[in-house]
Every structure is written in structure tokens, then in C-alpha cells.
Amino acid sequence: MGKPLIIGLTGGIASGKSKIADGFSRLGVPVIDTDELAREVVAPGMPALNAIKKRFGDSVIEATGQLNRSALRDLVFDDTPARADLEAITHPAIRELALSRIATTDAEYLILMVPLLIEKDWYTLVDRVLVVDVPEPLQKARLMQRDDVSAERADTMINSQADRLSRLARADDVIHNEMDDEKLANEILALHNKYLTIATS
Fold first, then answer.
1. Domain that holds residue 87
2. What is the DSSP string of the chain?
3. Model-level pTM?
4. Above 70 in pLDDT, residue 1?
């Protein structure tokens, strides 16, 4: 089998990307989640963790040797140069791991889930872009509940990503994630069949 068709799954924070990815996974579709890869590349002993410790100091490392993700997030959230330094360490490592997983995937198509697919150059790796879309008031409410953050913090987090229209402009396919579970499952199944047709044609 040749290279699988790569579907880039993205959407704003708290739009429900994981739920959609799970739907594809239940249909037997391989899902590569870059958030999971991000955790793998900063595991103890990995070069990226050593580079983070060197750049940000011991305060971002737990006594167990694990990365203190919340301490690091607080450090870089409002500090653009610091965030750029972190991304320069982690993004190439995540990309390399993603490419190696793609190369060893034996399937007609796969889902590559990337929160910042549009903002970064990840879209160059995919054949189609699938955007999970929700209205901003619903997105904000979900984010406040999920992360237990204030309305102001939620706005900041949402505004740190591409805006909704920019994402939709890049989309080949869109799932509106405000329908009930049955409709959502039908929508995912329809896309699954579409992607199989594209992959095998």
C-alpha cells in the first residue's frame, strides 16, 4: 500500500476535536494526535525535555523528572518570545515523530489532529483539511467549563488562535459540532465513506 490519504483535523480550542477524532477511531481509522506526540517528546530522557530545562530552568521540572506542564504554560502564555523559544524546541520534534508514524501507518487514510494546523505550516503535510466548527459563545462556554477559567482568560485563549473565519476559509470539509451524538455519528460516517472513496480512487 502507498502513502495513506492524510486528513488534517483542526478546530478552535474546546471545539470538540477529540470527540470527532474518537468517532473516526471507532470506525477503525488511525488517529495521530499531535497533543499526545507533544507529551511523548518531552518525556524524561528525551532531548526536547533537556533543551526545555536548559532554556527555562528547574522550575518547570517536577521532582520526578517529568515536565511540569502547567508551570511551563504559565511561563510562556503571555510571553511571546518565550513561547517562540518553546515552539522552536518542541515543534520540530513533534513533526518528526508525526512523519515517522505516518510512514508506518498501513491504512487507506488517517486523521492527523493538529490544533494549530492553520496557524503553523502543518497544513503542508495534509491532503485535506477537516475543520470542527462551533459558534464562539458555545466555544467560550465549553472552554470555561472544561478548563475552569474566567471569561477573560477564555477570550485570551481563543484569541491566541486563528479566528473562526480564517479556519473555515482553509477547510475542505466542516463538521458543525453542536448537533446531537446520533447526527454527529452520521456526519462522521458520511465523511469516512467520502475519504475512503478519495483514497482508493
1. 35-104
2. --PPEEEEEEESTTS-HHHHHHHHHHTT--EEEHHHHHHHHTSTT-HHHHHHHHHH-GGGB-TTS-B-HHHHHHHHTT-HHHHHHHHHHHHHHHHHHHHHHHHT--SSEEEEE-TTTTTSGGGGG-SEEEEEE--HHHHHHHHHHHHT--HHHHHHHHHTS--HHHHHHH-SEEEETTS-HHHHHHHHHHHHHHHHHHHH-
3. 0.89
4. no
